[in-house]
């Protein structure tokens, strides 16, 4: 609505940015997001993904990963955290045919800045950026470890940095030596209940997802 109002005034040079969390993007707001993407609304949408509804009490969202502890996916005799995988929202947005989709991480700020610049150049539809956002309170790790947690998320290939520009995929930060996913999960208490078998399964999932991304890059 804001973008269209400016357009009616002849101000196509205005960049309208929607900035919302994962719950408001993957769940409560997905209908309006998907509709705006389908219509080709010329806005920039940034989802900051801290993997839960953090401002209302740490409840699970659609992007909460499997086995993650939240207040609504507790760990105990009957449950081991969330039992379903999280939605892959960036790939879902790629399927909308957007001219620009990217993942970003504040621990890799130059990469994020370049992607914001590219998003601002889009004139023929929506640009979507999915921003990894560590949450010390909800994930239970020390605040001073926030940047380190974000870096390890990328270095384990759990959260690879990539972009899809006009249908062409490209990895924007290539990890030279992949770290094991165990290095990541041991940094936060929300995964402290995981068994060796569960960590091994998580590693297989991470490796499979990254291989799929590489295949998309090769096809592009």
Which properties best describe this structure?
220 residues; six-stranded mixed beta sheet; 6 strands; 38% helix; 14% strand; globular
Structure described in brief:
With 220 residues, the chain is an alpha/beta fold.
Structure description:
The protein is 38% helix and 14% strand. The mean pLDDT is 96. The chain is an alpha/beta fold and 220 residues long. Strand 3, helix 5 and strand 4 form a beta-alpha-beta unit. It has nine helices and six strands. Strands 1-2-4-3-5-6 form a six-stranded mixed beta sheet. It is globular and about 60 Å long.
Major sheet attributes: 6 strands, mixed
Quaternary organisation of the protein chains: single chain
Helix content: 25-40%
Amino- and carboxy-terminal Cα gap: 34 Å
**Largest sheet, order of strands side by side?**
1-2-4-3-5-6
Which runs of at least 5 residues are low in confidence (pLDDT < 50)? none
Average residue pLDDT: 96
**Strand proportion:** 5-15%
Q: Per the principal axes of the C-alpha atoms, what is the gross shape?
A: globular
Alpha carbon gyration radius: 18 Å
Strand-pairing-aware structural class: alpha/beta
Give the helices and strands as they follow along the chain: HEHHEHEHEHHEEHH
Please report the total strand number as a whole number.
Answer: 6
Helix count from the secondary structure assignment: 9
């Amino acid at each position: 609505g804001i973008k269209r109002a400016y357009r009616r005034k002849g101000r196509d040079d205005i960049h309208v940015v929607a900035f919302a969390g994962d719950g408001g993007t993957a769940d409560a707001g997905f209908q309006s997001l998907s509709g705006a993407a389908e219509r080709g609304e010329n806005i920039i949408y940034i989802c900051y993904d801290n993997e839960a509804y953090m401002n209302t009490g740490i409840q699970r969202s659609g992007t909460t990963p499997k086995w993650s502890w939240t207040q609504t996916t507790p760990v105990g005799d009957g449950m081991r955290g969330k039992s379903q995988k999280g939605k892959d929202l960036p790939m879902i947005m790629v399927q909308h045919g957007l001219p620009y989709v990217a993942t970003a991480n504040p621990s890799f700020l130059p990469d994020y800045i370049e992607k914001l610049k590219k998003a601002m150049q889009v004139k023929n539809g929506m640009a979507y950026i999915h921003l990894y956002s560590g949450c010390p309170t909800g994930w239970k790790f020390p605040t001073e470890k926030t940047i380190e947690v974000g870096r390890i998320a990328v270095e384990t290939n759990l959260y690879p940095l990539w972009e899809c520009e006009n249908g062409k995929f490209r990895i924007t930060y290539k990890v030279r030596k992949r770290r094991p996913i165990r290095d990541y999960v041991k940094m936060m208490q929300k995964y402290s209940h995981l068994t060796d078998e569960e960590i091994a399964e998580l590693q297989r999932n991470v490796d499979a997802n990254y291989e799929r991304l590489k295949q998309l890059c090769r096809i592009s």
